[in-house]
Amino acid sequence: MARWSLKQRSVLPGFGLTLGYSLLYLSLIVLIPLVGLVLKSTSLTWERFWQVVTEPRVMASYRLSFGASFLAALINTVFGVMTAWVLVRYRFPGKKIVDALVDLPFALPTAVAGIALTSVYAGNGVLGRPLEALGIPVAFTATGVVVALTFIGLPFVVRTLQPILEDLEPEIEQAAASLGATRLQTITRVILPELWPAILTGFALAFARALGEYGSVVFISGNMPMRTEITPLLIIIKLEQYDYGGAAAIATVMLAASFSLLLLINVLQWWNAKRRVAV
Amino acid sequence: MAGGLALRLGRGTAVGSRAVSEPTVVRWLLIGITLLFLTLFLFVPLIAVFAQGFAKGIRVYFASLFEADALAAIRLTLLATAIAVPVNLVFGVAAAWAIAKFEFVGKSVLITLIDLPFAVSPVISGLVYVLMFGLQGWLGPWLSAHDIKIIFAVPGIVLATMFITFPFIARELIPLMQAQGTEEEQAARVLGANGWQMFFRITLPNIKWGLLYGVILCNARAMGEFGAVSVVSGHIRGMTNTMPLHVEILYNEYNFAAAFAVASLLALLALVTLAAKSAVEWRVARQLKAAQTAGREEVRHEH
Prior knowledge:
The complex is a heterodimer. Chain A has 13 helices and no strands. Chain A is mainly α. The longest helix of chain A has 35 residues. Chain B has 13 helices and no strands. Chain B is globular and about 70 Å long. In chain B, helix 2 crosses helix 13, helix 5 packs across helix 7 and helix 5 runs parallel beside helix 11.
């Protein structure tokens, strides 16, 4: 192999063509437009940029977007671990259908999810009416935002955890039990430590997805300034006012948050894979 | 999308003995809570779509689907999907071929870059094209001088759809082709097959299920995308409205029965997607099992 080569030799054809085409298409569709966005936000002066991204209305949207996404990811973590456990370990009628339907939030268009959740959780809806009677209004409040974000993040923890649970060796649990551990001790001290990387990965994936979500939220949130506006909505509002620089500035802040999360997720997945190989 | 086909294989470790399972009461309690959670967040909203769609009777339902603007929206959705899915399919196969079959510097960076559209908010996915091709965008003045319309027109919708669905097929194929290695292709080459013969007779049959799986997911997202398309569409009725955008307009006009009728069509698409996806998973799992049994048989014969 030539020492200067960036690629190892192979008898297989098509490397130049396929890599060249992939890079070209990636650049045209994804990279150049994203760089264009960041460049656009630099058309503002630094003071103006800072002013735009720290406006009170924008700050309120960060609080809602990050807070509701965090809460939704937390709910999905608790119930996702439970769902994955039930689907892998137990047998009950209709299990296959339930398992397939867990992916519904991936397959159902977000706008459809949005109007469906709104109609169900609104004051006159099937679930909204009893909840309102209990003094918990859901639609057109921050709670509604959490409900929508919980819906769209639901599959992440379940699907990250399922393969790990399936691969878990039953011998370890038998050993723990034969050494006198109660079932609860086995679960908290033997099984749970094995699952942490996957649980964290699932949490981060659900959180990242929730942060950028738009379609399912805008119907149920009511979009009241300072109270129920999410950050992606503010980008659209800026755009509708033809404030391209402002829209690009807020988008750049969101991109920075998303890319940090992507980096974190990659580290978590690498940790996850390493643990799986080691086991 | 979490948990690709490659990850979801090899299920079913039955754990029976009492020392390694929970008491029956705990089991049913956990099953009950899980089903209650899924009912509140998944099943009730899904049923609501159909219930609301048919709330004003079957005649209103079908009238809402066959109305001119609805038909135009369905046509546009099909058009955008018919362009975005094949283009991303060609890209997915090319990228997976380069990444899975060759060793080169910067490979992991490339894999991360391919995943980028998943990390970006749909709204931003649309925004980048507005900043590129919009009237105030980088290429805006040149485009308007040449009378080319991309934003608030069909090309923008197609571009946004392509961006959103960009990683789906590549992401399914890369781990699959990495796992399959290069021996079979190398053998084909040594025996004198040219590049295309090798691809169509060896590689394509090997990856067909993974490819189909990716296409199913890509198609569902392409037809259902809302945020990105909403930013570039301009919402011109009968012209630049896709099905999800049409649903939004009807809903905002308080025409709930019609909104849910069109929405039910998209919900049906989601259910078909899930069924097709499960069928592919089931098929691949069965093939894998057959391959494993065949392997064991061979070992037994050798002894």
